[in-house]
Amino acid sequence: MNQQYSSTLLENAVNEFAKLPGIGRKTALRLVLHLLKQSEAEVDAFGNAFISLRREIVYCKVCHNISDTEVCHICSNPGRDHHTICVVENIKDVMTIENTQQYRGLYHVLGGIISPMDGVGPGDLEIESLVKRVPDEEIKEVILALSTTMEGDTTNFYIFRKLSPTNVKITTIARGIAIGDELEYADEVTLGRSIVNRVEFTNSFK
């Protein structure tokens, strides 16, 4: 049975919340009713935070992570190791690795992984910009920290081939991350150890 609403405004708000992943209509209604109990100033602040997020957030021109500025705070931090790049699939993976507090280098966000079934090829990802960064920034090591899925491994091999002429050291996170695991679901201790104990990419499957 469809939920009956006494207000079109209420129904519209519920419909918008229900578009979010993992939010059903019952949860959406509960959230909207919660907001109605808040002061007008609090609801304005809530709404304006998302409006500002969408309008003002940018992608770092160096690593493609989300940022408030042209170059993100990680890339511009002089305390980071600027000779090491950790290659990840998406922004969530940057946050996951940062939470381990085991890595102090830079990042490169691909924006996905190679997946022919989904119509995603190398040209759809930030791979060429990675290849350019290695000589331009005098990178000494590239860590491949992609999910240990077939698509992740395919992307790893493609990047490995593209970077081979540069003679940069290429490593991958240790296989403490189970085969088939998405990086964001790994616990921080396991992921941290996998980064610290990373191995040469050419030896990673022996």
Question: How would you sum up this structure, described in words?
Answer:
The protein has a 5-stranded mixed beta sheet with strand order 4-3-5-6-7. Strands 1-2 form a two-stranded antiparallel sheet. It is an alpha/beta fold. α1 (8-17) packs across α2 (25-36) and α4 (91-100) crosses α7 (188-196). The model has no long low-confidence stretch (mean pLDDT 88). The protein is built from 7 helices and 7 strands; from the N terminus they run αααβββαβαβαβαβ. Helices cover 39% and strands 13% of the residues.
What's this, in brief?
It is built from 7 helices and 7 strands. With 206 residues, it is an alpha/beta fold.
Q: What is the beta-strand fraction?
A: 5-15%
Ranges with pLDDT <50 over ≥5 residues?
none
Number of helices: 7
From the spread of the alpha carbons, the general shape counts as: elongated
**Count of beta strands:** 7
Cα end-to-end separation: 57 Å
Average of the residue pLDDT scores:
88
The major beta sheet can be summarized as: 5 strands, mixed
Helix content estimate: 25-40%
Order of helices and strands: HHHEEEHEHEHEHE
Radius of gyration using CA atoms only: 21 Å
Q: Which structural category do the helix and sheet elements fall into?
A: alpha/beta
Adjacency order of strands in the biggest sheet: 4-3-5-6-7
